[in-house]
Amino acid sequence: MHRGKGLFYIITGAIFWGIGGTVAKKLFQHYGVDVNWFVAVRLLLAGVLLLSIQGFNRNRGQIWSIWTHWKDALRLLIFGLIGMLAVQYTYMASIKEGNAAVATLLQYLSPVMIIGYLFISRQAKLTPRDGITVSLALAGCFLLLTNGSFSQLSVPTPAIVWGILSGVAAAFYTLYAIPLLKKFDSLVIVGWSMVIGGSALSLIHPPWRIEKGLLTGDAYLYLAFVILFGTMLAFWFYVESLNYLAPKETSLLGSLEPLAAVITTVFWLHDPFGLFQWIGAACILIIVAFMAADKPAESTTSTTG
Q1: Which of 9, 18, 59, 160 is deepest in the core (most CB within 10 A)?
Q2: pLDDT tops 50 at residue 292
Q3: 274, 27 Cβ separation under 8 angstroms
Q4: Distance between CA 63 and CA 66 in Å, rounded?
Q5: What pTM value is reported for the model?
Q6: How many structural domains are present in the chain?
Q7: Is 299 contained in some domain?
Q8: Phi, psi dihedrals of residue 208, rounded to the nearest 5°
Q9: Is residue 296 over pLDDT 50?
Q10: What's the whole-number average pLDDT of the chain?
């Protein structure tokens, strides 16, 4: 019974994450929503909701105690700006310039980037398994971005650049959060980091500034879905699943996110996806499963969209 709850939480959360990216593309493509405004609103509202959920938990005092130690507060500020804001903005920019499928799959290259960082910094040695993972990543990226053609890209260059930057930001997000997550609940860390990132972006594009008539009733529903389901509930369900499943299982089932993004992009938005791109997507999904099966996942938050 408890395992059933865990499976429900992680599967539902991962699917919400993947669909949320596709719905965001719908807002950019059909309603002309500005990326800066969208990310600011998404982060602020989702962050407040997550902190509100923490307010009902046993450790609700952590919401404010994290600010009482300057080292923790400084790390949280850095994490909010260079971690949370960077990964959310680059991911959404990649979706706007390309599509949710490619953006999500490129972001899922972050484990490979972490392997490279740990090797260069001499914190870990490369293993045969790492070699297979990197090879799959390179092959998957080539097929995903070129559809097997050496002469042209099948994905706009800006989408590729933003997508790769999203993977880099996700790698930083994952590594930098570890010390904080050892001391505080993940809802506190992610909730505050979203509020920090959203507040910073609000200085560039205040949430209350939006062209009149830009958002229709349908657009507000899409926006609400991304904030409530694609962000707040997706993360909350991920955290809840850790109470019932092993971290390795949640990481493995989290690979449903890019799968959901690909399926909804192709069949709902009708974006073309070639045969070799499907093969490339499969390579990256294999990486996610491979990494999850390699060793227990660290108690870190998901980087996803």
Answers
A1: 18
A2: yes
A3: no
A4: 6
A5: 0.83
A6: 1
A7: no
A8: -80, -5
A9: no
A10: 84
Q: Are 91 and 21 in contact (CB under 8 A)?
A: yes
* Per-residue model confidence as pLDDT tens digits over 77-126: 999 999 999 999 999 999 999 888 888 888 878 877 877 787 787 777 77
Residue 305 included in any domain: no
Query: Cα(3)–Cα(231) distance, rounded to whole angstroms?
Result: 23
DSSP state of 2: H
In-domain check, residue 95: yes
d(CA 121, CA 116): 8
Place of tokens 């405004």: 37
* Residues with Cβ within 8 Å of residue 140, at least 6 apart in sequence: 105, 280, 281, 282, 283, 284, 287
Whether 300 shows a pLDDT value over 50: the answer reads no
Residue 182: φ, ψ to 5°: -80, -15
Residue 53, number of CB atoms within 10 A of its CB: 17
Asked whether residue 16 carries a pLDDT value surpassing 90, the answer given is yes
Could you tell me the residue range of the domain that residue 180 belongs to? 2-294
CA distance 151 to 145: 12
Q: What 8-state DSSP symbol labels residue 297?
A: P
Of 42-51, 101-110, 128-137, 281-290, where does the model show the most confidence?
Answer: 42-51
Q: CA-CA distances (angstroms) from residue 206 to 87, 130, 199, 203?
A: 20, 44, 9, 6
* pLDDT value, residue 227: 93
Q: What is the pLDDT of residue 225?
A: 95
pLDDT at residue number 212: 56
Return the C-alpha torsion angle 155, 251, 178, 225, nearest 10.
60
Q: Examine residue 304 and state whether it is found in any structural domain, yes or no.
A: no
Please say whether the beta carbons of 268 and 225 come within 8 A.
no
**Beta carbons of 108 and 287 less than 8 angstroms apart:** yes
Asked whether 39 and 209 are in contact (CB, 8 A), the reply is: no
